[in-house]
Sequence to fold (47 residues):
Amino acid sequence: MQTSRGVMSGLTTTPMTQSSTAISEIKNYILAKGLQPGDALPTESQL
Fold:
């Protein structure tokens, strides 16, 4: 159903929590570096 404001106009965004932001950034790091299961993640201070 499309309104004059567009299909997505009724959706609202919620602010990300600190934990969901951390999860998202770790996933992005894994994808960017091409890490595979068993590969070591950097320490918290390195991130």
